[in-house]
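Module 6 notes. Inverse folding takes a fixed backbone as the condition and produces residue identities as the prediction. Think of it as a translation problem where the source language is geometry and the target language is the twenty amino acids. Below is one complete input and output pair. Work through it position by position during the lab.
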């Protein structure tokens, strides 16, 4: 016995709308990251890190807030650490520079085996209550011969 199954596409699946091209996507973007410097790139997990960024936005925001978070994400468990929150009155259209000093990443309550994985350092710019800027920096945590934990931050622009 041989069985053959034929499936007919539902209406609309084969109908494609013409592509608007990538140009349309880029025209709608309100943020451009021009440069990002991380110092030091590799350091003990408890040491502070300095982040310097240059960026452009294409709109003015009456309220502006920066959030910096560190996420440890392993199977069935995610820990988000709020590292920094800074509010300003507004942010105007144009080019800007911003520096952050990220304090020690507090690892209390997080099992070492979870830390020895990839983490994510996120910088978010919130304008008028909506996320305008999202910069994600991958973090690799390793242990040296002495058992000390070190973080290496990978610049997304490199």
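Target side of the pair, the amino acids:
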């Amino acid at each position: 016995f041989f069985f053959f199954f034929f499936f007919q596409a539902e209406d609309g699946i084969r109908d494609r709308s013409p592509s608007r091209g990538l140009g349309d996507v880029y025209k709608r973007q309100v943020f451009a990251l021009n440069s990002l410097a991380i110092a030091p790139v590799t350091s003990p997990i408890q040491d502070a890190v300095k982040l310097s960024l240059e960026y452009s936005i294409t709109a003015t925001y009456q309220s502006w807030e920066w959030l910096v978070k560190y996420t440890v994400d392993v199977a069935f468990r995610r820990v988000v650490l709020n590292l920094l929150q800074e509010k300003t009155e507004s942010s105007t259209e144009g080019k800007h520079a911003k520096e952050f000093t990220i304090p020690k990443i507090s690892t209390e309550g997080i099992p070492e085996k979870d830390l020895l994985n990839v983490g994510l350092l996120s910088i978010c710019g919130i304008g008028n209550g909506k996320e305008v800027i999202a910069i994600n920096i991958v973090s690799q945590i390793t242990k040296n011969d002495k058992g000390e934990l070190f973080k290496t931050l990978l610049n997304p622009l490199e």
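Reference fact for the lab report: Residues 11-17, 19-27 have pLDDT under 50 and may be disordered.
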